[in-house]
Amino acid sequence: MRVILICVAALVLAGCKPSLEEQARAGLRSKLKDAETAQFIELRKDSLGRICGQVNSKNSFGAYAGYSHFYVWDKLVHVDDDDSDFKLAREMCKNA
Question: Does residue 51 fall inside a structural domain?
Fold first, then answer.
């Protein structure tokens, strides 16, 4: 009986989906200098699975750089750098 309960608990925990913050942090890991210090606001996920929001993390000097808009969509990760591609993404994220 005890073994069955342990197996059921393991299956339940394995089925838990990561939170939006965990998903965003994983996606942004390669783009941020210090992903572990990332602070998120306005996180949301749209029907296509895009995660949008704002992120603030420490830069090379160890100071927080200020909030930047970002989106994570599957393997595509983009942090706002005022280019035209991100302006389109920002519009898409408004509808999320």
Answer: yes
Strand order in the sheet with 68-73: 34-45, 51-58, 68-73, 76-79
Q: How many domains does the chain have?
A: 1
Task: Indicate if the alpha-carbon torsion angle 8, 14, 19, 22 is positive or negative.
Answer: positive
| Within a domain: 8 | no
Q: Calculate the CA 62 to chain-centre distance.
A: 21
Looking at residue 92, its pLDDT comes to 67
% residues pLDDT > 90 (the chain): 15
| Residue 2 clears pLDDT 80, i.e. is over it | no
Range of the domain at 63: 18-94
Sign of the alpha-carbon dihedral angle for 35, 68, 62, 39: negative
- Asked whether residue 27 is assigned to any structural domain, the reply reads yes
Residue 3 lies in a domain: no
> Model-level pTM?
0.68
